[in-house]
């Protein structure tokens, strides 16, 4: 049986923590879809098209990873993609509580979808897209937190 997994997120911006999880998931599943959520309620810095493009560039060398932008319910997107597994990154206990609620809701909406939780490598546990944007906005060095092309896109977007 071929197992298709979705790793959803806003990815605003994509971080090394995200990339780490995708690379590891690509070794575990036949297909990994990076589902870039439109998520306008988060007021993303980058447009959906920009975030999809940055993710595509990051994973261009991994043959079983694709990147697809989506809006609406994740459970419906997973169903449309015929995915059986939902990958969620968990950095801390606080993340787990929220992610556990999401997993339960997604299971109610799409009973064929199982959620798995992955922890980032230790060097990435403190990285979040929000912190990366804040550090970059104030002129801090984010080169060890995001891929080089994402750092350039951030600096360009923030006029730095």
TrEMBL record:
GO terms classed as biological process: coenzyme A biosynthetic process
Q: What is its main location?
A: cytoplasm
Pfam families membership: CTP_transf_like
- Domain named Cytidyltransferase-like: which ranges? 6-134
Q: Look up the record and name the pathway of this protein.
A: Cofactor biosynthesis; coenzyme A biosynthesis; CoA from (R)-pantothenate: step 4/5
Q: What catalytic activity is recorded?
A: (R)-4'-phosphopantetheine + ATP + H(+) = 3'-dephospho-CoA + diphosphate
Q: Which UniProt key words apply to this protein?
A: ATP-binding, Coenzyme A biosynthesis, Cytoplasm, Magnesium, Nucleotide-binding, Nucleotidyltransferase, Transferase
Q: Name one GO molecular function term.
A: ATP binding
Residues the UniProt record annotates as site (Transition state stabilizer): 18
Q: Where in the cell does this protein reside?
A: Cytoplasm
UniProt: substrate binding residues = 10, 42, 74, 88
A cellular component annotation (GO) from this entry: cytoplasm
- Cofactor(s) essential for the protein: Mg(2+)
Q: Which SUPFAM superfamilies match?
A: Nucleotidylyl transferase
- Main EC class the enzyme belongs to: transferase
Residues bound to ATP: 10-11, 18, 89-91, 99, 124-130
Q: Which family does it belong to?
A: Belongs to the bacterial CoaD family.
Role played: Reversibly transfers an adenylyl group from ATP to 4'-phosphopantetheine, yielding dephospho-CoA (dPCoA) and pyrophosphate.
Q: Which PANTHER family match?
A: PHOSPHOPANTETHEINE ADENYLYLTRANSFERASE
Subunit composition and interactions = Homohexamer.
Q: What is this protein called?
A: Phosphopantetheine adenylyltransferase
Q: What is the lineage of its organism?
A: Bacteria, Pseudomonadati, Pseudomonadota, Gammaproteobacteria, Chromatiales
């Amino acid at each position: 049986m071929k197992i298709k997994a979705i790793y959803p997120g806003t990815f605003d911006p994509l971080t090394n923590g995200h990339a780490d999880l995708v690379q590891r998931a690509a070794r575990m599943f036949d297909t990994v879809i990076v589902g870039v959520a439109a998520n306008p309620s988060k007021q993303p810095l980058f447009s959906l098209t920009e975030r999809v493009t940055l993710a595509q560039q990051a994973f261009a060398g991994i043959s079983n990873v694709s990147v697809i932008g989506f809006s609406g319910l994740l459970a419906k997107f997973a169903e449309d993609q015929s995915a059986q597994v939902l990958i969620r990154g968990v950095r801390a206990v606080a993340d787990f509580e929220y992610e556990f609620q999401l997993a339960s809701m997604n299971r109610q909406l799409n009973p064929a979808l199982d959620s798995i939780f992955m922890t980032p490598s230790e060097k990435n546990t403190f990285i979040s897209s929000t912190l990366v944007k804040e550090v970059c906005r104030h002129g801090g060095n984010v080169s060890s937190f995001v891929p080089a092309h994402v750092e350039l896109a951030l600096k360009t977007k923030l006029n730095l």
